[in-house]
Amino acid sequence: MVTKCQDISVLTGSQGETVLVTLEKNITNDSGFSVRDTRCLAYMRIPEHSTKEIRGVKARKTPDFSMTIHPTSLMLFRYSALTYNPHLIHYDHSYTTQVEKYPACLVQGPLTTTLLLELLAANLPSNQRIKSFSYRALLPMYVQEPFQICGKKSISSGSYELWAINQNGHITMKGTTEIETIE
């Protein structure tokens, strides 16, 4: 895997500054090029004594298929180890709650993405495969708080919509896939 920083930009808005970092990861194997993963990471300062509640959008669609996930500390630790992600917010409760001021360790966005894609793959016809996936993380999810991953086939395009819902029914991640038929 080769990772390149494509862009860094700073946005200033009503919530303060947000730094956007766009990374492109190209993965190859013995057969050549395999996957391109482009991510835009948003870094923002969270006010220390914020009383503002995080607002979310309620899920309104009925999924064609879904699964409930119960994220544990061990699951988050293993995924961090698997992906070489050393950030303490995924497995160190004291650091996460005392330094970063989150209520609990955060579920990794890429873990949610992996779970969504595995759910879709398990529900695709055998002659179809995922060609691409575009997604956006909207809200954080926390260890020990169950969440639901969902999918629905788009009638018009043959693509699929995927989303994750937290225990309050708010959408935490949403995305769309492009599907191709295998001959």
UniProtKB/TrEMBL annotation:
Gene Ontology CC terms: mitochondrion
Q: Which InterPro entries match?
A: HotDog_dom_sf, Mitochondrial_HTD2
List GO molecular-function terms, semicolon-separated.
(3R)-hydroxyacyl-[acyl-carrier-protein] dehydratase activity
Q: What is this protein called?
A: Thioesterase/thiol ester dehydrase-isomerase
